[in-house]
Design goal:
- One of its GO terms (molecular function) is DNA-binding transcription factor activity.
- This protein has about 220 residues and is mainly α.
- The protein has 2 domains: about 20-65, Arc Repressor Mutant, subunit A, CATH 1.10.10; about 65-215, Tetracycline Repressor, domain 2, CATH 1.10.357.10.
- Helix content is about 65%, strand content about 0%.
- It contains 11 helices and no strands.
- Helix 4 (about 65-90) runs parallel beside helix 8 (about 125-150), helix 5 (about 95-105) packs antiparallel against helix 8 (about 125-150) and helix 5 (about 95-105) runs antiparallel to helix 10.
- The chain is elongated.
Length: about 220
């Protein structure tokens, strides 16, 4: 007598519960705030406390610090991309879209978070590289539209914008981070006004490209 072979039952992948997703979002949001304020070495227990979850919940979502830092940086980059997409869709004026995008990028504190990448984990992780490429593409799109409209001086490159935004939105050494927030957008606007066409002067050197930044 032959024994019937059991047919494996195909199981559907279960979706994370809504409360689990909310907990993960709270952890990432709290980590983003605390990494910006105190740096990447802030204790994970403190992040859990600010997020309002238990330590086990943090480690269930992120097995180590590298995973959490990477998730925070990728989420900030993706939020920056969304800001660029919204600026292009909702702002009829091409240079106005560029202004809106630059100020939104500064609010995401990219300059404070991105330096953590090389100091904490593999900066060539595929998730991080994909997020970085999305940011580069949206910056190119925003700048190309402003140049095509004759509103952005033609002698600036994507790298120029990225470097200046990072420098202007990062507090000077020895300065309390929160105390200079009120100056960031003022100084960014001064920089943006200098990008308008026609240009009142000739810039020394050549425009900084993405390839230039990758070789730094």
């Amino acid at each position: 007598m032959q024994t019937a072979t059991a047919i494996p039952v195909e199981r559907k992948a279960t979706r994370p519960r809504a409360d689990a997703l909310r907990n993960r979002e709270r952890i990432v949001s709290a980590a983003r705030e605390m990494f910006t304020e105190f740096g990447p070495e802030v204790p994970l227990d403190e992040i859990a406390r600010r997020a309002g979850v238990g330590n086990a919940t943090v480690y269930r979502n992120f097995p180590d610090r590298d995973a959490l830092v990477r998730e925070v940086v990728c989420s900030v980059l993706d939020r920056t991309v969304q800001a660029g997409q919204v600026a292009l869709a909702e702002t009829g004026d091409a240079f106005g879209a560029l202004e809106r995008f630059v100020h939104a990028a500064a609010d995401e504190r990219i300059s404070a978070l991105c330096p953590m990448v090389s100091s904490t984990f593999d900066e060539h992780h595929p998730d991080l590289e994909a997020a970085r490429e999305r940011v580069e593409r949206i910056i190119e799109e925003v700048m190309d539209r402003a140049k095509a409209a004759g509103q952005l001086r033609p002698d600036v490159g994507v790298g120029d914008l990225m470097i200046v935004v990072a420098q202007l939105s990062r507090p000077p050494a020895g300065t309390a981070c929160l105390s200079v927030d009120r100056f960031v957008h003022r100084h960014l606007q001064l920089f943006l006004d200098g990008l308008r066409a026609p240009a009142p002067s000739v810039l020394p050197g050549a425009a900084v490209t993405l390839e230039d930044l990758r070789q730094c």
